[in-house]
Every structure is written in structure tokens, then in C-alpha cells.
Design a protein that fits this description.
The protein is mostly helical. It has one domain: Growth Hormone, Chain: A. The chain is built from 19 helices and three strands. A three-stranded antiparallel sheet has the order 1-2-3. β2 and β3 form a beta hairpin. α3 runs antiparallel to α16, α5 packs antiparallel against α16 and α13 runs antiparallel to α14.
Amino acid sequence: MAQTGGRKRIWGWYFFDWASQPYNTLLLTFIFGPYFAQTATNALVGGGMELGAAKAQAQAYWGYGLALAGVAIAVLAPILGAVADSSGRRMPWIRLFSAMYVVGAGALWWTAPADFSLLWALFFFGIGLVGMEFATIFTNAYLPELHPDADERGRISGDGWAFGYAGGVLALIAMIALFQSGANGRTMAGLTPLFGLDPATKADTRIVGPLTAIWYAVFMIPFFLYVRDRPKPGAVRYRVGAGLADLVRTLRGLPKHPSLLAYLGSSMFYRDALNGMYTFGGVYALGVLDWSIQEIGIFGILAAISGAVFCVLGGRIDRRIGPMPMIVACCVILIATACLIISLGPNSVMGVSLPEGSALPDILFYVAGASIGAAGGALQASSRNMLTRQGNPERMTEAFGLYALSGKATSFLAPALIALTSDLTGSQRLGITPVVGLFIIGLILLAWVKPKGDFAT
């Protein structure tokens, strides 16, 4: 089949970010995550647990579920990447994992409070999350093929991430304007929830699963139309043995490429810390600041808009100075933001008591959300561009598989540490503290990373 034009191929690639971002925005962070915490908390309180302990326990359950999904991704990611590189065929895998995304997201409709099952909710959320993460691995591996100039790839990566944030913003606005009701039974647009969705059964919130699934299915069409594989001449499909042999050789050879090894280690920690902030941000706002899900949705819109704007700006700064300075600056900003969040309570900031009803904690949490969106988006865009400089150009899907492995090998760590800290302290606020240490470790390891990698000619 004839190759599509370069510009169409880039736009098709952008549409994956647009299509897939709502899983992070609507499900992981701002709508379903807080809904899970709220519903699980109510179930635990109904079973006789004290409210504060129930909130911490619900946060812990969410963390343990994400940790299990992260282990599955860590084990399989480099293997699948190596198999795909052995044939040059990525698209069949993207179709498979897209189906998992749609099924997992859509099944979240069946999580009504009346018959709420922790296992059911976490299982199907995990299926969709695994599908989204694996589809991302194979899609990211197309990045080096989109432009021969490594500097331009920084701009393309940033613009793609910004386009994804824009999709997340629009999906989130649609959710809280048309479906999610507030305390008055009306949506943010002043409407009753569409399709007669009953807030009493949380149907107005549970619709987020099917909405996310439909959004992905529709907006992946440009990707499948314009992005094509470039199979290796004479390659055989799915040579599992050859792929595994190549992976073993790559792993054995990693010590010969210290910059790549250090980068995988560094990104393992700072991306895990960032994911912890994304994953628990909405849960934290609901449990510590007593926000409603509608308020968390508005917070999410602010964070996503901030992310979109700064991904575009960051991509252009990346093109000018390279990804390394961007990564360092973003990590520093996120450390300061994490410390700010930990210091916030309903009536206090940094240990200073405030008058009852003070709006300052809420205002500062909005500021923190904007900072997470801006620095987090730019960090992820520059990080995947940095990987194209660190990895072997001939084995890029495998490199992104290792990148996913490094991101997921300890992806259980932030959720597990947050869950464990929440359990031990009985405090959601203190439960967030481990992310600061993970960011610092990531920054330290960057000292051994060469800005242009080991494979630069």
C-alpha cells in the first residue's frame, strides 16, 4: 500500500494522543478515580469504618489496583516491543490494545453504588489502562519515522502532547457540561444530565466510561487511515523467538550504553512520581479538601488547558535547547508543587491555620493543578523525544518497550508507597509524600545521561 504523505502521517499520529488522553483525564484522574474513592469510602463507612480511615483505605485500594496493572505492563512491554521490531509490524498490536481500551472503559458503566464491586471496578479499569499503555508504546515508536531531524521531533512530540491535552479538555468539558450533575442536580451548563441519567444511581458519573470508549473509537479513525507500518523486507510476522532473542541481546548490551541505561533509570523514577501526582490528584481533592466531582472536573479543565499551552511552548523550547534542560526544569517545578500540595489542608497552608471557610487552600490547589498540567505535559513530551536520542534507531519499538518497562518496572512503587503511607498514617495528605523522593532520585540519575545519547553519530 502506498505510503501516506508526511503531513497526513504526522496528523494521524497526533490523533492517537487526542483519542487516548481521556483515559488519563476522565478516568484516571478527574472523574472515575474520585468516583471510585467516593463510592469505596461510602461502602467502607457502611461497613462500620470511621470516615477518615475509610478515605485512606479507599485511596490504598486504588493504589494497589494500579500497582497490579503496572506490574503486568512492566513484564510484557519490552517483550512485545521486541517482537514488533523483529517484523516491523506495530499496527496489529495497536488494534488489539485499542479493543482492550474500549472494553475496559465501557465496562465501567456497571459500577453503580448499589452493587459496587471493588474487584470488578479495578479489574476493568486495569484492562483499559493496560490497553492504553501498550497502544501508547507502539504509537510512540513511530516518532523517529515522522521526521529525520531530531530537533524537529521535539516540536512534533510537544505538539502531539498538546493536541492530546486539547482532546482531554474538550472531553472533560463535554462530561461536566452535559452529564455530570452538581449538588443542585444540574450540570455545569445548567442542564439536567442528558439521556435522563439519574444522579441518584450515579449514572451521570458512570457514563464517563462509555463516553471515553466512544471518544477513543471515533477519534482513532484518522490514525488508522494515515499511519502505516513499514515492515522490514523479508520479515516474518510475529517471530516471538527472534524478538525475545533480540531483547535478550539488548538487555545484555545495556551496560555498554551507560547513557541509555541511566536515562531509563532516571525516567523510571520521575515518571512514576508524576503518575502518582496524576493518579491521586482528584482523589486527594475529594478526600482532603472535600471537593465535589464537578469541582474536580473544573480543576481538571484548568490543568489540561495549562498542559496544552505549555506542551506547545515546551516543544519549541525543546527544539531550541534540547530535551535535557526541559526535563530538569520540569522535575524541579513538580517537586515544589508536590510540597505545596502536601502542605494543604481544609483550613491550613504550610502548617499555618486559616479562618474557617478560607478559600486560600482551594486557590492554591488550583495553582498546583495548573503547575502539574504545565510541567507534567512538557516533561512527558520532552521525555519521549529524549528516548529517540537515547535508543538504537534500528530497534526503536524495543527501546520504547524498555522505556515502558523502566516506567512500569516501578510503576507500582508510587501507588504502593502512597497506599502504604496512607495505610500507616491514616492520612491522605501525608500519603502523597513519597512522590517527592522519587522526583529527587530521578534528577540525580540524570547526571549520567548524555544529551545526545550513546548512539549519536
